[in-house]
Design brief:
single chain; 80% helix; mainly alpha; 168 residues; 0% strand
Length: 168
């Protein structure tokens, strides 16, 4: 569970990376904003760690059922983007399962798996601005992931994980 301060840092960093990934493409920006807003709302509902108001629910539904499917960037890049949506969904399910039922090693992996949605950012940068921008965003995601892990320490003992790894 993230604190309000952590949420603000995450929100600001994500908003900045969304802007950079989309570049001057307003439709790409809207696409990313729809996806990231929807996953935040859904994650809060699943984790039950923040109360969601009706407006947030309805915005999420509108984005997923209407605005996403009429977004020109999404429709033009459907094949590349939907394959990522499927992978994000599968990775999210795996992360939740590993956090609930996995051993310590699974829980370590789950901490990174749950951030897989960020992989949309370099893909959108590639589609909107080319290879070099993709590489720049890809590096920034690795830095952001490290920052996220420092802000959100694990709820298990990493020393135990290391002992487990060394013992195998």
């Amino acid at each position: 569970m993230t604190t309000p301060t952590q949420r603000e840092v995450i929100h600001n960093k994500t908003a900045d990376m969304i802007k950079r990934a989309a570049g001057d493409n307003d439709e790409a920006f809207d696409y990313l904003a729809f996806i990231f807003q929807a996953t935040r709302v859904i994650d809060d509902v699943v984790d039950n760690d923040k109360e969601i108001n009706h407006k947030s629910y309805f915005t999420c539904m509108e984005n997923l059922f209407v605005r996403l499917h009429t977004n020109k960037f999404f429709t033009a890049n459907y094949g590349a983007l939907v394959s990522q949506h499927v992978t994000i969904w599968n990775t999210w399910l795996a992360a939740n399962h590993a956090e609930e039922k996995g051993d310590l090693i699974d829980k370590v992996h789950a901490r990174t798996w749950r951030l897989y949605i960020d992989e949309l950012l370099p893909l959108v940068a590639l589609l909107t601005q080319g290879y070099e921008k993709m590489k720049e965003l890809d590096n920034d995601i690795r830095v952001f992931t490290a920052l996220y892990h420092r802000m959100d320490p694990p709820d298990f003992n990493l020393e135990e994980v290391l002992k487990d790894v060394r013992g195998n």
